[in-house]
Structures are given as C-alpha cells and as structure tokens.
Design brief:
The complex is a heterotrimer. By secondary structure, chain A is mostly helical. Chain A contains 9 helices and 3 strands, in the order H-E-E-H-H-E-H-H-H-H-H-H. In chain A, helix 1 crosses helix 6 and helix 7 runs parallel beside helix 9. The chains are: A mainly alpha, B alpha+beta, C mainly alpha.
Chain lengths: 178, 255, 276
C-alpha cells in the first residue's frame, strides 16, 4: 500500500466479514452497542485495515481475536459468474475497487484458483474495454451497461486508452490544418 | 510542479521525433552548408539530390525551395505488397509485418544468419547503436539495404505518411491511392499481438492501455509470484532448480 | 567496458567533430525519450549535457552575429538593394533554419528538465534519502538522533542533510540543491500551516509507523516498451531482494517487447536496448 494513494486507502476501507473468537470488553461499539462487550462468535463486517490488524494473532499462530472470511464480492457465486462470462458481471456494484480488493485478499488468503479467475476476468474485460475506447457505440445497448460496471482500475484503463486515441486524432487533425 | 504529461511521449511528441527522419530532396535553389545543433547540413546545389531531416525538408517545401522525393516505401506498389503480406501471410495475419532490418540485422530472406550489432562510440566512450529516427529508412533510395529486401513499413510510417500527404502531396505518386492504402494498413494489423514491427504512433496510442493491463496482471499475480519465488529458492537450496518453469507470461510479453 | 570499447573510444576521442555533434544530438534525443518513459530519474549524463549546453550557447551567439551582420548592412537604396540581396541572398532563410533547429533542441532540453523536476518533486524525500546515504561523515544519522531528542521536533528535521554527500547520482548538482531547497520550503510550509499543531510524534515526513513508509519512491516494476539493439539481450527477472536475479527470455536484435523496467535497466545503461 502506498501512503498517499487515495485508491489504496479506499481499497483498505472496503468491508470484510469477521468473526470474533474471544470476548472483548467494551468493544460493542463496533456492533452499534456502545458500552457493551463483544461475545465470541459475533460476526461483523469490518474495514479491511481493521480486520487485518485484529486477525494478526492468527497469522502469528497465537490466540487470535478474529477470523476473516471472504468478502461477498469474491464469493464462490461471483467466481462462478465470472467463469461463465466475465463481461456481463457488474464489478462496480460488487466492489468499486474490485481488483485491488482481490490483491489485498490474496495477501491474506492462499487462493490459487482466485488468482486464475481474476486474471482471466481482467484479460477478457480489458479486451472489451479497449474495444469500447476505440469504437464507442454511444449511449445505447450493451456498451453502456458494461462501461457502468467497470471497477476503478478498469475505468482508469478506459480513460488511458480513450485519451490517447483522442490525442492521436488531434495530432493528425493538427497536421491537416497546417 | 506543473508538468501534466503522462509517462511516455505523446502523439505530438512522436510527430516531433518523426520530423528528425532523413528524407531525400531535390533543391530548387542553392544554399551553403550549415552547422546545425542536430549535425551538419550538406550544401544544396540544384538539381543534385540531398538528404535532409524532414522538418527542414518541409520548411523548404512550403517555401517552394525544394521538392521532396517520396520514401521508397511510400508508393502504391510497395504499400500494396505490404498490405498483401499483412492480410495474406499466415505468420502476420494477427501481427505486424516485419520492420526494415537494423544495420547488422540479417534481412527476412537471410533467415538463420546471426545478427552482428556494430556499435558506434560516443565521445564519452559509450556504445551507441543507431535506430529510428536516425536511420535512412525514409530516403528515396534506402542506402545500406539491398534491393532484394521486401518493402517494409518504417517505425515512423504513420507520421511520415501523414505529414507528406499533408504538405507535399504533389510530390507523391498517386497521393489519393496512397491515402487509401495507408488507411487500410492498421486495420489489418488487428488483434494487436506481436509488437515487433509496431509503429511509433501505435506504441504511443496503446502505451497507457497496455502498461495498465500488464501492471494490473502483475499485481493480481503478485501472491502467486511470491509463492513461486519461495518455491524456487527452496529448490535452488536443494540444488534442484529448473530455470525453465519461471517463464510466466506476466513477467514479459511479446504478445 | 571491454578492451575494444576502450580502443574505439580513444580512436574517436572527444572533440567537436561533425559526427560527434550529430551523435550527441541523437544521444540527447534518445535520453529524452527514455526519461519520459520511466517513473524514476535516470542517471544525469553530465558530459553530454555540458557539451550540449555549450553548443546551444555558441549557436545562440552565432545566430545573433548573423542577425547583427544583416542589421549592420547599409540601408537599402535603389542602387545597392539588388547588390546586397545578391551578396547574401539566403540570409533570412539561413536565419530561420538556424532558429528552428535551435528551438527544436531547446524544446528537448526543456521537456527533459521539466520531466526530471516533476519526478524529483513527486519523490523528493526518496531522492534526498538516496543522496544522503552517500554522506561522507555520517552527519546524517547524528543530526537525526539530535533532532529526535529535541523537545520540539519539526517537519524540517525530517529533511535529510545533503551538504556532505559524495555523489549526486542520479541527479545533477543543481537538481540536488533544488530538491533539497524545495523539500525544506515544503516542510516549513507544512509546519506553519498544519503540522506544527500535530502531536510531537506525528510531525515527521519520513515516518514508518504502521508498516507503511511515508517516503514514496518510483515504481521500478512497471512495464516499458523497448527495442532490442544488441544482437541478443536477456531480460532479467529480479527477485524480492534485488540481489537474486534470474535470466528470463532473450530478446533478439530489432525485437520490440513490453517488459518490466527493472529487468532491462542494466541493458539500457549499456545502450543495448532503447526505450520507446
């Protein structure tokens, strides 16, 4: 994570299901019950940065405070949909920083298959992004839905492809005007 | 610090670079030789041909002081041939046609010959291998390349074609046909796979997208790469390392 | 450098031969394209830039001389107008060519310097730390421990001292003093506008707490477009520790690849690949 990078800060703010293993006095505020204790077995969605910190005991092999679960954006159901047709899935509604979330989760969990699915998804969708950036189909049809469903990484990719294609037209236009 | 330009030179800077390509002119007036910052310029004596950088050739052309002889590839026949190769040849259907060879690089017809890179030396003693825009790839007679070489699109073909059609179309042979052929060329390159033979403008256009794709694939694959490294280190420690298995596509791509 | 290189460089020793003028211009152009292609600041080619700046200065003088000589000419009368024109028919043309050539070279130098300044200001702390690591008398670590023991630490204390550094690499001398002055000003501005009001332990600009360093450096794992110029150039696969390196694919002459910058930087330094 880089210190001043807004996208990675926002990625770390995305929520993750966490299950408390121990009783924590006075931490009920996380559940919306200020002053109460947290009981073992409580499931709460916590921001990634907090969940990661609280689960650190688990990775050190000592008694852990919480165990982490896969966020719903990366659930089995989503993975199956991505395997079927990556282009029809609305990634943005799953997580605005979908791939960055995936990268962070892969630092915490060993999930070989997740790597492959994300890579395959990204490659197929990137090809479509390039196509859309060079041949915009206007505000009709599948194109709009696809573009609306781009995650932040894909949006930046679309912008890069689109801007350069435009600059190139400007350059050749300039050459024509002279 | 106000420097808004993204990483990698922009299309207009690529055009600026292409203006350093040498072209052949036929001067219409005399001009003594000049010592320019880009190197010396030979004296112009009509009707003797001379090699000049494109920016200077265009400056003289606009003032009707010289005519530009089209680069040997910028004629209808060689363009038709290249178009045929790009669309017909099974090796190039999803790729770019081969670029003109660099000095010391065997031509496509001498396949199998080993290349011999012959460096020049800078005043500081560093090796320097010339490359576009500083090779005679756009002169009327391509010096240094044998005539049996098939025609090839130089690195700055988009810019060269664009600028000459704009400012010197009366010096071109059948400019309208050339304009049509140049339009067809990138379309057949489709798929965008092998990059060898890619043009400068195509690099400029695709840079942001491609680097974005490769960088994100690297990030997604980082955990797997880490695991692979640990495995490799372990195998190396056990003296059983097999270098072949770490050739993963996200490390380098030739598309 | 091998023995052939040394002999060849003696043969072509430094000097103002016409070839070295165009070779220098080509090297400058290639360096500019490279500097625009990567996130890090490339090693400043001191000798090349000194020669270029000298030539630019001399060219400006000679353009001024030519312009003055045309102004000195007697005012055109009906008698000598033709004679004057015949005497120097191409004066204006020559001037416009020389000026265009000068402007093009100046554009490259300006764009090069501005690109470097943009990177320097973006990664200022990174480069200052890098420079100060070559400090000769270890005054850096002393001043830091002093500042930490002070009762009122300020953001300015985080700016490394580069007064005794042994090398400016990869910067030029003026870039090094620029980035130091820039960071001092920035730190004092931060201090005055908000950081001075922070708790003492939050006033540093080089903090490492929480495992995330405040000092951001350029990304060297990003990919670049390269053309292979040598007969065969291997791409290095750099490991985590930067010491461990494996050889990946081998690029052949004339090939264009998209590769990680860290894997071809060594070959770029030797001139065996060029950045596109």
């Amino acid at each position: 994570m880089s210190y001043y990078d807004v996208d990675s800060i926002l990625t770390d703010a995305q929520k993750l299901p966490c299950t408390f293993e121990l009783e924590v006095p006075g931490l009920g505020i996380l559940e919306g019950n200020p002053g109460e204790d947290i009981k073992p077995g409580t499931r709460i969605d916590l921001p990634l940065w907090l969940g990661e910190m609280l689960s650190i005991g688990a990775r050190l092999g000592t008694s852990r405070l919480v165990t982490l679960d896969m966020p719903s954006a990366l659930s089995e159901r989503v993975m199956n949909a991505l395997k079927a047709d990556p282009r029809t899935v609305d990634l943005r509604s799953l997580a605005p920083h979908f791939y960055s979330l995936g990268e962070r989760i892969l630092e915490l969990f060993e999930e070989e298959e997740l790597v492959d699915v994300l890579m395959e998804t990204f490659k197929k969708r990137a090809a479509e992004v390039s196509d859309q950036a060079h041949n915009p189909r206007g505000a009709v049809g599948d194109g709009v839905d696809f573009l609306r469903g781009l995650d932040e990484t894909e949006r930046q990719l679309f912008r890069a492809a689109h801007d350069r294609a435009k600059e190139m037209r400007v350059w050749s236009g300039e050459a024509k005007r002279k | 610090m106000a420097f808004p330009l993204p990483r990698g030179i922009t299309p207009s800077e690529i055009g600026f670079l292409a203006e350093m390509e040498m072209v052949t002119v036929v001067p219409r007036q005399r001009l003594e030789g000049l010592e320019l910052l880009g190197g010396p310029i030979e004296p112009l004596v009509p009707p003797r041909r001379a090699s000049l950088p494109l920016w200077l050739a265009l400056l003289l052309k606009r003032q009707r002081r010289a005519n530009i002889m089209p680069p040997s590839w910028l004629h209808p026949e060689p363009l038709n041939l290249i178009l045929e190769v790009e669309s017909q040849h099974p090796d190039y259907r999803d790729a770019f046609s081969p670029p003109p060879p660099l000095p010391g690089q065997p031509s496509i017809r001498d396949d199998g010959l080993a290349p011999t890179a012959r460096p020049q030396y800078t005043p500081d003693g560093n090796r320097y291998y010339a490359s576009p825009p500083f090779l005679p790839q756009n002169t009327a007679q391509t010096e240094g390349f044998s005539s049996r070489d098939p025609p090839a699109l130089p690195f700055h073909w988009v810019e060269m074609g664009n600028m000459l059609l704009e400012s010197a179309s009366d010096d071109l042979v059948e400019p309208d046909q050339i304009r049509r052929l140049l339009k067809d060329l990138p379309a057949t390159g489709g798929g965008g796979v092998a990059l060898t033979g890619v043009g400068a403008m195509e690099v400029g256009e695709e840079r942001g997208f491609l680097t974005g794709v490769v960088d994100n694939l690297r990030k997604i694959g980082a955990s797997k790469e880490q695991a692979r490294r640990e495995q490799m280190a372990e195998q190396r420690a056990n003296g059983a390392y097999d270098g072949a298995q770490d050739e993963e596509e996200e490390d380098y791509m030739e598309f | 450098m091998d023995i052939d290189d040394i002999l060849a460089s003696v043969d072509h020793g430094p000097g103002a031969s016409p070839e070295s003028t165009s070779l220098d211009h080509q090297s400058l152009t290639r360096f500019w394209v490279s500097e625009r292609a990567v996130s890090e600041v490339l090693p400043w080619p001191t000798a090349l830039m000194d020669r270029m700046m000298d030539r630019v200065r001399m060219q400006i003088e000679s353009i001024e001389d030519i312009a003055a000589s045309s102004a000195d000419a007697p005012p055109p009368t009906t008698h000598n107008q033709n004679a004057n024109a015949n005497h120097n028919p191409n004066l204006n043309l020559r001037l416009s060519i020389l000026q265009t050539d000068l402007a093009r070279t100046q554009y490259i130098i300006r764009s090069l310097l501005r690109t470097r300044l943009a990177k320097l200001t973006k990664y200022s702390m990174h480069y200052l730390v890098k420079l100060s690591s070559t400090n000769q008398n270890l005054s850096q670590s002393q001043s830091q421990s002093q500042s930490q023991s002070q009762s009122q630490p300020t953001p300015e204390d985080s700016v490394p001292d580069i007064s005794a550094i042994a090398s400016f690499d990869p910067l030029s001398e003026s870039e090094a003093s620029f980035v130091h002055a820039h960071q001092k000003l920035l730190a004092s501005h931060y201090s005055g506008s908000f950081m001075g009001a922070f708790p003492r332990q939050l006033r540093r600009l080089d903090d490492n707490a929480g495992g995330t360093s405040m000092i951001q450096g350029p990304e060297t794992r990003e990919v670049v477009f390269v053309r292979c110029l040598g007969a065969a150039v291997p791409v290095l696969v750099v490991g985590e520790g930067e010491q461990e390196e494996d050889i990946g694919v081998t690029m052949r002459m004339g090939d264009v690849w998209v590769v990680r910058w860290e894997g071809v930087k060594a070959a770029w330094l030797k001139g065996e690949v060029e950045l596109l």
